[in-house]
Specification:
This protein has about 290 residues and is of the alpha/beta class. The protein has one domain: 3-Layer(aba) Sandwich (Pyruvate Kinase, Chain: A, domain 1), CATH 3.40.1380.10. Helix content is about 65%, strand content about 10%. The chain is built from 6 helices and 5 strands; from the N terminus they run αβαβαβαββαα. It has a 5-stranded mixed β-sheet with strand order 3-2-1-4-5, with helices on both faces. A hairpin with a 5-residue loop joins β4 and β5.
């Protein structure tokens, strides 16, 4: 059994760790609230924009001429994937869950997958895994303006247009609530036409002057918006997962400190009891020695 001094040292160490995780929990909670507000505020607009894009694509689905290159369905020779993961750890199993979903997607593809990594966790794993990484973006700020995301979207769109890959997918954690972040992989390009039976769209839009003119104006902008929304969702998921993980770590540290304190008290009590027995035994032996001397 460990000595009282060793247990006391462990208690101090665990208590210090608990103080650090409590501070990290407070920081993550503050960032989480702001990230959640941004993600939820922009989500209705992003979803409606995507609905309009797929509706416009469905309007021209039967046309012989492709009105915009981002709608062109090509033979799949190479797929592209924007993999959005955190830069740092200490957020539970979130990075692992996203990467696992991405790996399962890659395993199902009949063609090689080229990755645009947003975040160091995904980039580092894919480098070790031997994946084809075309670009890496890291250190995305917590409140990213659209200008911070535009280079990522511009690279992905240009690679699709010039034929570097024939499909583009987004892999990220969709924010559901503080406790649930769902890893998803969804196709971004080419934009698939909406199907009423599948997508449940009941609204019919009146397009003026015509779908062709509208597509040319908004298609790329709305595509950039989808990537921007995915990054906002990923940040909200990251801060939520980190806050939950740090809260669990703090509670575990407090529980361990209590258990160690009980152990320390028991060891200390045993040591005091042994010392008292030694004193009592010494006094008894001294009394007997004096009696024999008389």
């Amino acid at each position: 059994m460990a000595t009282a001094r060793e247990i006391r040292r462990r208690i101090r160490s665990v208590t210090s760790i608990g103080q650090v995780t409590r501070a990290m929990q407070a920081v993550a909670a503050s960032r989480m609230r702001r990230a959640q507000e941004r993600a939820m505020a922009s989500r209705p607009y992003a979803e409606r924009a995507w609905e309009i894009l797929t509706y416009l694509a469905s309007e021209r689905a039967g046309a012989r001429e492709v009105l915009h290159p981002l709608l062109e369905q090509r033979e799949l020779k190479t797929a592209g994937m924007i993999l959005i993961t955190p830069d740092r750890g200490l957020c539970g199993g979130l990075p692992t869950n996203i990467i696992r979903e991405a790996l399962q997607f890659m395993a199902r593809q009949p063609a090689p997958v080229k990755i645009i990594a947003v975040g160091r966790k995904g980039h580092d794993f894919m480098m070790r895994h031997g994946a084809d990484i075309g670009a890496e973006f890291a250190s995305i700020p917590d409140q990213p303006p659209l200008t911070e995301i535009t280079p990522i979207a511009r690279l992905a769109i240009d690679d699709f247009l010039n034929g570097t890959f024939d499909q583009l997918h987004l892999a990220y954690a969709r924010f559901m609530n503080t406790m649930v972040q769902r890893p998803v992989v969804r196709q971004l390009l080419p934009i698939e036409p909406a199907v009423a039976e599948r997508d449940g769209y009941a609204v019919e839009y009146i397009i003026e002057p015509d779908p062709s003119a509208v597509l040319g104006e908004v298609l790329e902008g709305f595509t950039v918006l989808q990537i921007y929304q995915a990054i906002l969702d990923a940040q909200a998921s990251e801060h939520s997962a980190r806050m939950v993980a740090m809260r669990a770590a703090t509670e575990n540290a407090e529980g361990l400190a209590q258990d160690l304190t009980l152990t320390y008290n028991r060891v200390r009590q045993e040591a005091i009891t042994r010392e008292l027995l030694d004193i009592a035994g010494g006094a008894e032996a001294l009394t007997r020695a004096r009696a024999v001397a008389r």
